[in-house]
């Protein structure tokens, strides 16, 4: 490991070069302020301005505010562009996109990515996913048993926490062949705690050179090394991706769906009416193949993803070297770009009544979805989420089981405001605690 004085020397050398470029950056910022690429003046000069703005890990909210102020094309830092325009989504993320991936969790090299994706495809194909349903059911039974025990004594459940325990146990079982035992312990496994801590800096959108410096300083990377040792060096890259992408995002969507359903009991009843023919008595279990195409169930999931995308503002791409034009706006070559799903999901140009939870827009009132191409919560194209079938299996089975077995409402003293107010964007979304009071229903048809 390099000594501290060598690291400090590198830092000083970097800042010397950085200072030599500041005048050029300032000149560029002045020019851009007068162009269609708007944004805070300081963000056009230095990549350190954005982390200051995002110090509370609320990128989804701050990026939306910037777009409301500056329009669909916002430059939140040098060589970085956020585009809240429906026609940009397919250009940037779609199958024919020439934008390579720029990500901390995914391979950038197209050939290497294609080779790895072919390997993963077998694990996430329809046949394989059907085989995971029985394994999921074991953890869903444990979750339901806990909810039932709390319902019996009238105690509320923090569903934000318990959906995380459930999702991480299921995905760790698939990944390692044995769960982390978080549902039984009723708390995070230490490895998951480390993973969550390591995600915090990602919410600040720090420049890449910052991470190189930090990981070079003795002692600061000790926690990560402990996690590396736990997973094994050869498996580490794949383990981080599967556990984070498969657990964190699913737990977030489940919590957000329940947050919406508890406020819209009419949607709960419509879902019960729709799924009741497929419920097995007395266990209340259901086969995924029976419910996979239920329109209202899928509409509830889509509407939740629209309002609460798990990757709200973090899926980045890099423009081709020659640049590209989107809706008359020229984007310079090699500029990092993104289309924030959180912003698009609340855009009146894309959806009618965008602030309202209206699942019917997805199958009864298609005119309420003005720009269908803007909806890409799992991303698109060759870098789209390969685990989408697994996520939908978990979401459908869990939601149907819960609404069938329980009535639910906000616990006394809970109004749901902290759920969104305390949300954090750390590459994937995390929400505040949400206390829900469950009551077992006497019969399936009640």
From TrEMBL:
SUPFAM superfamilies: Cytochrome P450. Heme binds at residue 385. Its cofactor is heme. Keywords: Heme, Iron, Membrane, Metal-binding, Monooxygenase, Oxidoreductase, Transmembrane, Transmembrane helix. Signal peptide: none annotated. GO terms for cellular component: membrane. GO terms for molecular function: heme binding; iron ion binding; monooxygenase activity; oxidoreductase activity, acting on paired donors, with incorporation or reduction of molecular oxygen. It is found in: Membrane. Belongs to the cytochrome P450 family. This is Uncharacterized protein. It comes from Aspergillus tubingensis (strain CBS 134.48).
